[in-house]
């Protein structure tokens, strides 16, 4: 009889890391709503939230309380099981993508009789990028199920738009990643970060076209303007969550901001060195101090990319649906293929 040996310390370590990442993602998503209003106010020359607490910092708590205590309405003609499953699935897939992201280097814990080295990554798997693409591709089911289960023609039409948009732009995003993988030779996000730390430059220097394609596709994957066609209120009322209220609506809204946060972290990891802090020699620092500096560096890069998401939303007008599809199929996919061929040619030239 084979007995299953459980490393309880490792299990507790991973559960604590999961809890910390989920909490941080929810808090950042919550205050991204405040940040977006402030960015919009700056661009439109007004103040933005300034009533609830100092500088309006309590406004996200007020909005969350409103959603939590609102009456929950489920349409009589809806498929109630799928109606509930849709927002839950959207929220679950948004959170799952963070499992393979390296949030920093190792930290050393030596207190209360505990002497452990903890990796700031839930799972370092050698197919990390494939895992992210797999989870992201299932996220569209949350939109599709919610739109179909609502039994509303506007919701269904918006859900079909969302599904088509995600499927179309995943192709260009995947092709842009192939060029990066040709350079790194690994699907592990940890390995990609370490290669950038050990090399002379970050991947953004070697793959500027790939990054441009990736960030445009990230806008479409997150349903962010100017690609927010599933939520085009001038055409489809409220979009795929037309019939939702209370925290079910809150789950859809939170999932969008969590997706924006995780997409920014992934771009910072793949193209901007992850937790690498430029001009800082980590060899001269203690393990814990280097980990803290790397964690702050990763979040600094992430917040800059989140600002770009918000800046673009309040700067560019929404695309028409035919323009959205033409950009994905006729521009980004051919450009990604050209970038992949050029990368392959440069690699062969260097090896020769």
From TrEMBL:
<keyword id="KW-1278">Translocase</keyword>
<dbReference type="InterPro" id="IPR018086">
    <property type="entry name" value="NADH_UbQ_OxRdtase_su1_CS"/>
</dbReference>
<keyword id="KW-0874">Quinone</keyword>
<dbReference type="GO" id="GO:0009060">
    <property type="term" value="P:aerobic respiration"/>
</dbReference>
<dbReference type="GO" id="GO:0005886">
    <property type="term" value="C:plasma membrane"/>
</dbReference>
<comment type="subunit">
    <text>NDH-1 is composed of 14 different subunits. Subunits NuoA, H, J, K, L, M, N constitute the membrane sector of the complex.</text>
</comment>
<feature type="transmembrane region" description="Helical">
    <location>
        <begin position="285"/>
        <end position="312"/>
    </location>
</feature>
<keyword id="KW-0830">Ubiquinone</keyword>
<feature type="transmembrane region" description="Helical">
    <location>
        <begin position="251"/>
        <end position="273"/>
    </location>
</feature>
<keyword id="KW-1003">Cell membrane</keyword>
<feature type="transmembrane region" description="Helical">
    <location>
        <begin position="82"/>
        <end position="105"/>
    </location>
</feature>
<dbReference type="GO" id="GO:0016655">
    <property type="term" value="F:oxidoreductase activity, acting on NAD(P)H, quinone or similar compound as acceptor"/>
</dbReference>
<feature type="transmembrane region" description="Helical">
    <location>
        <begin position="169"/>
        <end position="189"/>
    </location>
</feature>
<dbReference type="GO" id="GO:0003954">
    <property type="term" value="F:NADH dehydrogenase activity"/>
</dbReference>
<dbReference type="Pfam" id="PF00146">
    <property type="entry name" value="NADHdh"/>
</dbReference>
<feature type="transmembrane region" description="Helical">
    <location>
        <begin position="332"/>
        <end position="349"/>
    </location>
</feature>
<feature type="transmembrane region" description="Helical">
    <location>
        <begin position="201"/>
        <end position="220"/>
    </location>
</feature>
<keyword id="KW-1133">Transmembrane helix</keyword>
<protein>
    <recommendedName>
        <fullName>NADH-quinone oxidoreductase subunit H</fullName>
        <ecNumber>7.1.1.-</ecNumber>
    </recommendedName>
</protein>
<keyword id="KW-0472">Membrane</keyword>
<dbReference type="InterPro" id="IPR001694">
    <property type="entry name" value="NADH_UbQ_OxRdtase_su1/FPO"/>
</dbReference>
<comment type="similarity">
    <text>Belongs to the complex I subunit 1 family.</text>
</comment>
<feature type="transmembrane region" description="Helical">
    <location>
        <begin position="15"/>
        <end position="34"/>
    </location>
</feature>
<keyword id="KW-0812">Transmembrane</keyword>
<comment type="function">
    <text>NDH-1 shuttles electrons from NADH, via FMN and iron-sulfur (Fe-S) centers, to quinones in the respiratory chain. The immediate electron acceptor for the enzyme in this species is believed to be ubiquinone. Couples the redox reaction to proton translocation (for every two electrons transferred, four hydrogen ions are translocated across the cytoplasmic membrane), and thus conserves the redox energy in a proton gradient. This subunit may bind ubiquinone.</text>
</comment>
<dbReference type="GO" id="GO:0048038">
    <property type="term" value="F:quinone binding"/>
</dbReference>
<keyword id="KW-0520">NAD</keyword>
<feature type="transmembrane region" description="Helical">
    <location>
        <begin position="125"/>
        <end position="148"/>
    </location>
</feature>
